[in-house]
Amino acid sequence: IERLLLLWSPRVAAFCRNTLVEIMISVRCYPWRVAINAFLTCIKIGLAGVSYWYMFRALGYCNLGIWDVITLTALSSIIAYIPISFNGLGTVELVGVYIFSSLGVDKIGVISGYLTLRSLVLVLAWLPVLFWLFSSRKTHN
């Protein structure tokens, strides 16, 4: 594979080789950190998938398997690293519509689930700021 990459693009081959070397160094020098990171990443993926599973259940899609939803949620989240939006609809939502349709969830259900969960995350992220703003006003007055 490395020879093919070298013929196709020496820069890509060097990048892949350097990435592999850095991964091996990290695992060798910091095995506990890598293990904890891997464990917490699995927990994060599981929690995100369970959130989508519950959201789809709340929207009336009760016949979905939890492992299917967790897997497809992780798959659609990988696409989030592509910073493209089509008329306000992101690539994650487009991929979500495509892959969750294989489980029988229609477009409206996927978009509703995604937008509701994104809104909840946004509100939860800003709650501490709101508490801080209101508490700091009381102390300054």
Write a structural description:
The structure is a single chain. By secondary structure, the protein is mainly alpha-helical. Helix content is 79%, strand content 3%. The protein contains six helices and two strands. A two-stranded antiparallel sheet has the order 1-2. The longest helix has 34 residues. It is extended and about 55 Å long. The chain starts with a helix and ends with a helix. 11% of the residues are buried. The mean pLDDT is 86.
End-to-end C-alpha gap? 68 Å
User: Sheet bearing the most strands, described?
Assistant: 2 strands, antiparallel
Count of individual beta strands: 2
Spatial order of the strands in the main sheet? Answer: 1-2
How does the overall form come out from the CA principal axes?
extended
Percent helix, as a range, is over 70%
The topology string of helices and strands comes to HHHHEEHH
Strand content: under 5%
Structural class: mainly alpha
Q: What is the radius of gyration?
A: 21 Å
**Low-confidence residue ranges:** none
pLDDT averaged residue by residue: 86
Number of helices: 6
Helices and strands, with pairings:
Elements: H1 2-8, H2 10-29, H3 31-58, H4 66-78, E1 85-86, E2 89-90, H5 91-100, H6 107-140
Structural features:
about 140 residues; mainly alpha; two-stranded antiparallel ribbon; 6 helices
